[in-house]
Amino acid sequence: MDTDVVIAGAGPTGLMLACELRLAGVDVTVVEKLAERSGESRAGGIHSRTLEVLDQRGILDRFLAEGELQPVGHFSGLYLDFDESESRHPYPLMILQSAIERLLEEWAAELGVGVRRSSEVRGVHQDEGGVTVELDTGGTAPATLRARYLVGCDGGRSTVRKLAGIDFPGTEATMTALIGDVELPGLPEDYVWVRRTPHGDYSAIAFEPGWHRVITSEYDHVVDRDEPVTFERLKESLTKVAGTDFGIRNPRWISRFNDAARQAAQYRAGRILLAGDAAHIHFPAGGQGLNMGIQDAVNLGWKLAGVIRGQAPESLLDTYHTERHPVAERVLHNTRAQSALVRPGPQTDALREVFGSLMVFDEVNQYLRHLLNALDIRYPLDGDHPLVGRRVPDADLDAPDGAGRVHELLHAGRPVLLDLCGSAEVAAAAKGWADRVDLVEARGEDDHWTVPAIGDIPAPGALLIRPDGHVAWATDDTTPHTPSLITALTTWFGPALQG
After folding, report:
1. How far apart are CA 213 and CA 235, in angstroms?
2. I want to staple 461 with a disulfide (CB 3.0 to 4.6 A). Which of 33, 347, 351, 421 is the partner?
């Protein structure tokens, strides 16, 4: 084997997955067809759950230093409020994708991950022992890499997905949007967000001093995917939609997108897996795509590492599809709704007015913000406790190693068995997994924990936290039922050590 895992694509999803695998001691090679980072920044924000994920790995401060927190969000341009009790990081962070990729690549380099650029996947052959990946590196003959697994993180037009024969069903585009980072000297306002007109809508967002991100959307107009994207076309579109081009000039880059929504029929085909846009594409309403891709990576990384290390059965990889496919289905569903809500016309005007009047109700506001920030996701895990399957709240702790809150326990990317009641039964059960699960005995600072979509619940007595921050087992008892704990440990982290 040349490496344990080949990751195709050095975007946010691929880089995050590479870091997760390296934290787990797995050898990984990232291949990227581009010779260097493009500088394009289609995405421009990080939501609460992704901020928590970065916090769980101890790298959040790097991102906060380069972005700007926003106290409000939106659903199809209709503003949402956020609840500070739900997370330590309730607000979206405005930060360009180019900065996100650079920071993740720097972290990957610190962990020993290299990116092989100018290396495009051209062929894939898998067998019982592994995967052979053929690469076009610009040479006279294709290079090859032999790995145990291949993960396609190579975007919506994923070559890996096509070579694996995985279907990509969904709905066709009904509109065309143009996006570019430009100078906009004639804009009378600093910030324009989803301004609707009879001809479409436009936005102008100042991410950096002197530069605006301009987005125009024209509905019932779909161009051929191979039609060139030009600065003149962006000027024409902005003039059509807004009535003026505001003196637009000096484009850094121009691109195009639409509201096509597709999802891979399966996220795994043998030794080939998909993550990020390779697994799902959608209208970028609410900036959910990049966030979902990073969360895909964090769900998959520890599972793939456990299988490669021989500590977990290969069937564990099937839970990646089981858990993440429904999450993407929900995102495709809500982005289709957002696309419909922003279309021009008096019928949509009336619909937005009614919809906006409903958003003043706390329950509606909460439901919609959870569609965006993913704090309410509950995976279908066995267990009756309200925490099981949900992301663990970042509760305050007094731990012997100095950790002051739960998420600090996850910096190493290892599972944590957190004992808050000093149970001898929990400690005894943990011995069989001492090589792969960290037992932490601590004292909780709060009697109740806040769980999004539920509210306050009594602080648990003990809980098993997966490396992705989701709870695999929890109990309120001071004398826990250890057979259920042992079942959870075996299910997620393989059989106990013998002897």
Report:
1. 13
2. 421
The Cα 308–Cα 4 span in angstroms is 7
| CATH architecture of the domain formed by 175-258 | 2-Layer Sandwich (3.30)
- How big is the CA angle at 129 (ends 162 and 2), to the nearest 5 degrees? 85
The full length of the chain comes to: 499
pLDDT tens digits, 188-198? 887 888 899 99
381-393 pLDDT, tens digit each: 999 999 999 999 9
* pTM, full prediction: 0.96
Separation of alpha carbons 388 and 50, rounded Å: 19
- For domain 3-169+262-373, the question of CATH label 3.20.20.60 is answered with no
- Helix (H/G/I), strand (E/B), else coil: 81: strand
Burial-class residue 8 by CB neighbours within 10 Å (0-12, 13-18, 19+).
Answer: buried
Return the closest-CA partner of residue 291 out of 73, 136, 24, 115.
Answer: 73
Each residue's pLDDT tens digit, 85-98: 999 999 999 998 98
